[in-house]
Amino acid sequence: MDAIAIAADAAARARALGATDSEATVSEGSEFSAEIRLGQVEQVKEAGSSAIGIRVLVGTNTGSSYTSDFSAEGIDAMVARAMELARITTPDPYAGLPDPIDLGSVAGDLAIYSEATAAMEAPLKIELARRAERAALDTDPRINNSEGATFTSRLSLTAFVNSRGFEGSYRSSSCSLSCSPVAADNGRMERDYWFSLGRGPAQLDSPEEVGRKAAGRVLRRLNPRKVPTQKAAVVFEPRVARSIAGHLFELVSGDAIYRGSSMFAGKLGQTVASAKLTLVDDGTLPGLFGTTPFDDEGVPSRRTTVISAGVLNSFLLNSYAARKLGLRTTGSASRGITGNASVGHGNLFIAPGEASAADLLRAAGTGLYVTELMGFGFNPVTGDYSRGATGLWIENGELAYPVSEVTIAANFADMLMAVTPGSDLEFLGSVAAPALLFPEVTISGT
Amino acid sequence: MELSESFFGRHFGITERDLQSYLSTALSRGGDYADLYFEYLASTSLSIDEAIVKSATQGVTMGMGVRVLSGERTGYAYTDSLEPDKIRHAAAVAACIADGPATEPVAGFTEAARRDLYPVLSAPADQPLAERVKLVQRADEAARSCDPRVFQVQAVYIDNIKHVLVATSDGVLSFDRQPMARLAVSVLAREDGGVPQRGFAGGGGRVELPFFSNGHSPESFAREAARQAIVQLDAVEAPAGEQTVVLAPGWPGILLHEAVGHGLEADFNRKGVSAFSGRVGELVASPIVTVVDDGTMHSRRGSLNVDDEGQMTQRTVLIENGVLRGYLQDRLSSSITKAAATGNGRRESYHHVPMPRMTNTFMLAGESDPDDIVRSVKKGIYCRNFGGGQVNITNGDFVFSATESYLIEDGRVTRPVRGATLIGNGPESLKQVSMVGHDLKLDEGMGICGKDGQSVPVGVGLPTVRLDKMTVGGTA
């Protein structure tokens, strides 16, 4: 049986046992990774796995279960377990599947599966990692150690079926190359990394480029200073600015809105950010990492302008959050293979502005160019923002010297009102942002 | 226990002969060592949200992983199936890391010594679901009824039972049955339509249902979560810059986990990429600081009878009176560096290769009275609860995020302050410890540690501690 047929069979068994509705997911995947360190193969891992999950509704009670046992007995036990669990949950008038009119799939080739990834031989993958690390180690004698370079590739198949008539499946692939050199100077070590990823090997940067970029990043961190505590500007480089898009996602996620656990609750249609800020979620952009034909409830992926020139235009919603809020799903359901869907995103990005990186530094004048953030200091309920930071000090609009062991803090609402996005948008995953300038935050140091 | 009486013997008919044969396949192209890790995990998760039990999930995952070591090289493969041909295939894939004549596993197995740090009274799957649902319902009701300012409550209960079998080519055979349960409550409170604040509390460990009726009731966690949210309603801006910091006992032990724990994992030190590399015997903390990692504590979240490589866990002194004593070892690092094993080889699941990981990491009690510690501070902050933390092991910088803290003014704990990140440098920050309380406390049993994409349960602990200087990331 193929994956859709297996999922359909499980969903039908639940209906036969009395489920009002059911939905089943089959996930199959394989992974390969090779780690090179100091020129030697350190680890090679290769395996495949598969699992099935089901969610049933009995009236408005839900129950969920999963297994990796695809035998008839295994599937039966899983379905029976989900039905039993539906007896102990509470009826929830908002529980259910999406309206049939909302179900469907994006047509056409989304370019998320590359045969070339599947065809790649292990020795080539190992060689790419070796070349990336070599390039980093050869850059400068201060790079005298390494946490290695890694090549990973993944292939997966997702099939989803529900009792309202949805049946769909898609394959996806990814490969990535990363490199983490270590440099030392004056008795203190630093490390940094760079990576490249794609649906297929053709989208990867050359290993030499990955290695040299990683080397450049670690070298510029050597001999950092700790700066005095002050209020000053910060510029987030794009890799770090992605975290701001991630925090915005927490704020616009429908689950957080109906619970009141987002500072954006009740602010639809209001100005929540500078007019320079536009946030888009698009699950249909060909070849990118947040692209899928349908979400995890069988609703087609789409483009949603979440924040339009500073105005909160739309939340991101699955069918449950949509019903709770009296809105319509945005095709943003996310889950593993089982359980109630939560809210996810496709390719979520802050739209690029006009300013080049140099423009942003000039506009900042004095402050911190942030190249790494640490910790979990963002509270989406209150907007309290406080994180550990590493970067380069900006003096007279130019990068001057490395800085570490400081924090940056502000209220997130104030940060959004003052933000200026740069022009350099690059997708390094399903969340992306250009460089971002925040004209005043508190930098804590000495 | 004989293999035939073990979980995998009884349910899957696995025999010592099978294990020998799989290990022979794993070493069919040479290699110094191979091991097999079998895992069966049955989990239950229940959650209440808006006073509705919205979600109930149960499921089973099982599979096994094969590892082959050849010098410093590791080959790894796994399978979701315990069918012999699938296992043999995984063993053949892992074998490819070596390239030479076959080696042979030693004949026969010796079972690792047995311990029972977390007796399993009954499999959780056999306990009535209704009783477990009651836990989240009681938490919900308690949080709502304890204060009218509470307007949103979520509670999640998760338990699982994991059966593990490890067989190695040097003849070690170990079995373990590992229970785990956890109840967590999160609360939002608001005053007169103002900005909401959140609180979070919970607990658990390698325990079963009765744990939650003996002093760890859903009501106690709910009240604690509500208390934290309500305290925060009056919070003022946190200070910015270097401050004297007093850490409350218990969960603030996350300081040790980030400041020194990760940096002392042997893989980083073998490779020379940790800020603590090559520093055994050096003073890395104030002389009143002693830090241990102890995997042998009864029913604790980070405890293990035997680690995921079949090695007995133990109590390991990491820092003694300020002097660095040693690292946390797994099999690969201890064999390469000829160091004694410490039983810290852990993995998230059969999908993952074991690595050196912490178990329960804490600072031993000192001599100071906790009240005297607070009284000694003219101006500073008192941190009672934290969210997560993170460390850069190479330069030693680490952060941890305070979620409940207060100003200390003239030796007294005064106003609550907003959440703020604290940042320090591992080998330097523990030199700032000038007082250690006699009130060592372990955390409530909620800790999860992430490393290299693998999550494992851990514990931390700390007495009240004064750090003379640490950078606090507030805005005032």
Given the helix and strand composition of chain A, which structural class is it?
alpha+beta
What order do the SSEs of chain A take from the amino end to the carboxyl end, as H and E? HEEEHHHEEEEHEHHEEEHEEEHEEEHEEE
Quote the distance from N terminus to C terminus of chain B. Answer: 62 Å
Quaternary organisation of the protein chains: heterodimer
Tally of individual helices of chain A: 10
Q: What does it look like?
A:
The complex is a heterodimer of chains A (446) and B (476). Chain A is globular and about 70 Å long. Chain A has ten helices and 20 strands. With 446 residues, chain A is of the alpha+beta class. Chain A has two domains: 3-219, 2-Layer Sandwich (PmbA/TldD fold), CATH 3.30.2290.10; 224-446, no CATH class. Chain B is α+β, with helices and mostly antiparallel strands and 476 residues long. The termini of chain B are far apart. At the A-B interface, strand 2, strand 3, helix 2, strand 4 and strand 6 of A face strand 1, strand 2, strand 3, helix 4 and strand 5 of B. Strand 3 (61-67) of chain A pairs parallel with strand 2 of chain B.
Helix and strand layout, with pairings?
The complex is a heterodimer of chains A (446) and B (476).
Chain A: H1 3-16, E1 21-37, E2 40-58, E3 61-67, H2 72-86, H3 115-119, H4 122-137, E4 143-162, E5 167-185, E6 188-191, E7 194-198, H5 207-219, E8 230-236, H6 238-252, H7 254-259, E9 279-282, E10 303-308, E11 311-312, H8 319-325, E12 333-334, E13 342-343, E14 347-350, H9 357-364, E15 367-374, E16 384-395, E17 398-411, H10 412-418, E18 420-421, E19 431-432, E20 436-444
Parallel strand pairs in A: 8-15, 14-19
Antiparallel strand pairs in A: 1-2, 1-4, 2-3, 4-5, 5-6, 5-7, 8-20, 9-10, 9-14, 10-11, 12-13, 15-16, 16-17, 17-20, 18-20
Helix pairs in contact in A: 1-2, 4-5
Chain B: H1 7-12, H2 16-26, E1 33-49, E2 52-70, E3 73-79, H3 84-95, E4 110-111, H4 129-146, E5 150-168, E6 172-189, E7 197-205, H5 218-232, E8 240-247, H6 254-261, H7 266-270, E9 291-294, E10 315-320, E11 323-324, H8 331-337, E12 345-346, E13 355-356, E14 360-363, H9 370-375, E15 379-391, E16 397-409, E17 412-417, E18 420-425, H10 426-429, E19 433-436, E20 441-442, E21 448-451, E22 454-457, E23 459-462, E24 465-473
